[in-house]
Design goal:
single chain; about 190 residues; alpha+beta; 2 domains; 3-stranded antiparallel sheet; 4 helices
Length: about 190
């Protein structure tokens, strides 16, 4: 990441990604080809590369590899949004893992990933034509034989798992988005309630 910082006050005016094209000279600051402000004195502002994403807040300042810098509210809001999106992304990955963990019905473990769920749904659709039909199936426990009622039990268990997972995912995401500081977001425990 790159920061644009006023030397005398140590105030960070911009927090930028390394991929952004940044030019700072005596006439202007340009970010991705857009002149942001003119009359910049290169002896007043500096570009500084930071290797660590800001990770800790204390008052209006954040810590990074180069020490403490004061951030204006726009910078702090941008960092909060980034950290919040990272936490929501982490939450989504956890929810997917929980969704795909499988269920046990009547002592039989059933996979709950999309492919297995789709297979159960299509089998039920085909069995609807002949409800007395049975089908051989394989789970991690080995081979079994299922009636339409058995397959419906599998489907209902997967539905209950997905419904609970989505509700918990939504609850956590809403809680994360209601937080107001980076430290609160970093400290938020997404593992509760699964």
């Amino acid at each position: 990441m790159i920061i644009v910082k006023e030397i005398s006050t140590n105030i960070v005016t911009y927090l930028l990604e390394d991929s952004q094209d940044v030019t700072l000279n005596a006439k202007y600051l340009s970010i991705d080809g857009v002149k942001t402000f003119g009359g910049v004195n290169v002896s007043t502002y500096i570009l500084e590369s930071i290797t660590d994403r800001p990770s800790h807040f204390q008052g209006g300042a954040y810590a990074y590899s180069g020490g403490w810098s004061i951030g204006d509210q726009t910078v702090l809001d941008g960092i909060l949004t980034d950290v919040m999106e990272d936490k929501v992304s982490e939450l989504g990955a956890l929810a997917l893992n929980v969704t795909n963990q499988g269920v046990t019905v009547g002592g039989t473990f059933i996979s709950s990933d999309d492919e297995s769920t789709s297979s159960i749904t299509s089998t039920l659709s085909l069995m609807g034509r002949n409800p007395t039909e049975t089908i051989d199936f394989k789970s991690k426990d080995g081979w079994g034989r299922a009636t339409k009622a058995t397959m419906e039990g599998f489907q209902n268990a997967i539905w209950a798992l997905r419904k609970a997972t989505n509700a918990n995912n939504k609850m956590h995401e809403n809680a994360i988005r209601a937080l107001t500081t980076v430290q609160e977001v970093l400290d938020y425990d997404i593992t509760v309630g699964w």
